[in-house]
Write a structure and sequence with these properties.
alpha/beta, TIM Barrel, Immunoglobulin-like, 3 domains, 18 helices, binds alpha-D-glucopyranose, binds calcium ion, GH13_cat_dom, maltose metabolism, Glycoside hydrolase superfamily, hydrolase activity, hydrolase
Amino acid sequence: MTVTETQLQSRSQSQSQSLPANSRTWWKESSVYQIYPASFKDSNGDGIGDIPGIISQLDYIKALGVDVVWLSPILQSPQVDMGYDVSDYYQIHPPYGNLKDVDMLIQGLHARGMKYVMDLVVNHTSDQHEWFKQSRASKDNKFRDWYIWKKPRYTADGARQPPNNWGAYFGGSAWKYDEQTDEYFLHLFAPEQPDLNWENPQVRDAVHQIMRYWLDKGVSGFRMDVINFISKDQRFPDVPVVDPKNPYPEGAKYYACGPRIHEYLQDLGRILKEYDAFSVGEMPSVYDPAEILNAVGFDRQELGMAFQFEIMDIDHGPKGKFSPGKFCLKDLKSIVTKWQSFMYENNGWNALYLENHDQGRSISRFASAKPEYRALSGKMLATFLGLQSGTPFVYQGQEIGMVNMPESWDVQKFRDLEAINFWNEFTQINEENAELCNQTLKEIRLKSRDNGRIPIQWGPGKFAEFTSGTIDPWIGVNDDYDTWNASSQVSDPSSVFNYWASILRLRRTWVDVFVYGSFKLIDEEHDDLFVYSRSLGEMRAIVVSNFSDKHVEWTVASEVSSIFAGGKILIGNYEKRQITGVDDKSVVVKPFEAFVVLQNEPSISV
Ligand code: GLC
Ligand code: CA
């Protein structure tokens, strides 16, 4: 049976009327598309993506069916960390365009019923920001206290040491010595990214002004970069050293959701509320949902939702991101269930994501990039992620099943400072151990941030039609673009792109169950299948995803067998399943298969 758009609309309206009114909001019902501007679309042939390039693809984004578009930073920046080092919050990085282009982008989005969410990077600035230039100039400069300056420590034999032993995320100590004033400044990331001192009310005012300026200009909210790092324990204590090879361990317990975080976030929350704005805080290094709920609880009036990192860190090894770890489905089950249940029960909200500009591609990491499984994997992951409780984020390229960079690529092709710094340091320390170095290189290839940053494959032409020019793009284009590209997928109803579009449409059609329903994990012990249900009132849906390349015979769990018996398949990534349906006793789930069964509703074609 086919249902028309009008019928769908009236159905979703009648559902909404029965929803609990207290915590319904537009941003819970939205889905988000993330753009990494440098790699999206280059309109003027300089090899770097730009805002006019984005504007030229708004219909493509609309066709995917998202409601919100988040752009990674486009503000003026020396680009030490690809724009996450802002040198002027009121100017655009010239290769990306200018303020007029941003106005046009916002207009173009609004004309298509979409909203613009901006990346707000205010834990730190660039060292080229005027505030920092002033701050470092002298101890009595009025901007001195806008950053975090401390006196050196000295060992017994007089060697100068940083004020504490915290490590920076991009290598070495988190403190840099500045000769001019004989003090160190704090930088949790690169030395060119000094941390702002949020203890200073002028800093907070300056951030509030930035937010208001952009909200007034028409942005609909913010993704807030490492926002849970803004309040530091003012004692700045050392952290215990556990690995003698690493004298600068992560100091997160002294700044991740630090002492004054909620005071600061409540200030931001007041502004957000005034504008009914979208907000998602990036919150690494915190694994207790109760801690994050303090910021995203509906009644807290701080942020709408947060990116937690537990899934992203799942395959990190004992010595961090690039030490070998293993992805195992049971770990994923327990993490997902923990966050899904906790946020639902406590009126919080999840940001759902498997990819972004800091991560390896999800097909390569959590499923299979082999040609025979790649499309199935992309669709399976879309089903698994997109129908959970929370707001889904699709990262550019994820919608067309892009995968990690080819293994044959040389280290010279890496562009990201995190991987490059790590590799240089690691090979220096472990020079003699070729095997260990090789193993580490494998991990870098799997998880490095560059994987998500290679250009979008638009078509089969030169450079995947990412650029209109003839010069090499700033980062290599993946070799597989003649078969894996957007133009072939948009027109193919069975593509990963159109599957993603269907999943996002399902959320809108069955708002009750897929947006506001509860989550329950089914068959916790199963090694290959991830099965969950979503329920609200009488309505229940079961989402089945096979994370393995095997045919799996599954004895349908008794708690869902009635749904299997009476339900209808809403969507699936194997065509046949949609016709034959399932029975209530057992079902053979094919390699990387995913399908969704809905109880109490007729099937629709999506
Ligand atoms: C966030 C960004 C990342 C950046 C870092 C420092 O984690 O997503 O790209 O390097 O913050 O700003
Ligand atoms: Ca360009």
